[in-house]
Design a protein that fits this description.
By secondary structure, the protein is α+β, with helices and mostly antiparallel strands. Helices cover 32% and strands 29% of the residues.
Length: 252
């Protein structure tokens, strides 16, 4: 009875989340948009309303990451990036164009505030890298910031990338784990297996997670599909919200 109750509660929470989130989405020409007040998490993550958003095409310094620079002390580039995003977006009406949903349930999106594109602005000002693993969109902006010695590129610096910082942190955590073979069994956030499914004009990532499903029935694998020009989803509350809104034939 307790297990059934937990499952029922989970479904209720998911349904309510989908209903509330659905009101913030708009769909047109196979593109989904999200709008609302933003709250900044770090240099490349924020929430729009209650939806977690990862800015497309950029990689900002990780929380706790210091950036080295020649002939000068290391500096808190992580705080500089986060503070700049706060200046641009915190508490402001933000419009995001959703590209996909990542393995962590975040919406990968380009976002703007009063016509100012958030991701490109951070790269132009030398407060984020162009995330070339996933996109080449902002490489010219990074190159210009490098030439001008802005932000992380000051004094000709070549600081450790956030991806390398994450990998080092992951390796240290695995090495310090008391569980034998933890490192070999662990799945790095940078290397977790993901397959790409081209669907019409959209490309959707589907998680191939090796994590077992939780006994309480809440753990669901995110899946996203495009059917008949509408974005539909299943497997998480955010995908349910997208699916629910795709069945509405109006804009919000």
């Amino acid at each position: 009875m307790e297990l059934r109750g937990q499952r029922f509660l989970g479904k209720c929470i998911c349904f309510l989340s989908a209903t509330l989130l659905g009101g913030m989405f708009a769909f047109a020409d196979e593109a989904a948009t999200l709008s609302g007040k933003a709250s900044v998490i770090d240099g490349d993550n924020l929430k729009v309303g209650v939806a977690p958003v990862r800015l497309h095409g950029i990689d900002a310094p990780e929380t706790g990451q210091l950036c080295e620079r020649p002939d000068l002390p290391s500096w808190r580039c992580d705080e500089a990036a986060a503070n700049r995003l706060v200046e641009l977006a915190e508490g402001r009406f933000t419009i995001c164009s959703i590209l996909e949903v990542d393995r962590y349930g975040r919406l990968i999106a380009t976002c703007e505030v009063k016509g100012i594109q958030l991701g490109p602005t951070l790269v132009k000002e030398g407060l984020a890298w162009a995330f070339t693993k996933y996109s080449q969109d902002y490489v010219p902006f990074e190159q210009a910031a490098r030439r001008s010695g802005l932000g992380i590129w000051q004094n000709g610096a070549e600081p450790q990338t956030p991806a390398d910082y994450r990998a080092d942190r992951w390796a240290r955590a695995a090495a310090a784990s008391p569980v034998k073979d933890a490192q070999s069994k662990a799945i790095s956030p940078e290397t977790e297996s993901v397959s790409i499914m081209p669907l019409g004009r959209s490309t959707i990532r589907e998680q191939r997670s090796t994590k077992p499903q939780g006994k309480n029935g809440f753990a669901m694998r995110p899946r996203l599909q495009v059917k008949g020009g509408a974005l539909q989803g299943q497997g998480s509350c955010f995908q349910m919200a997208l699916s629910a809104h795709s069945r509405r034939q109006h804009f919000v």
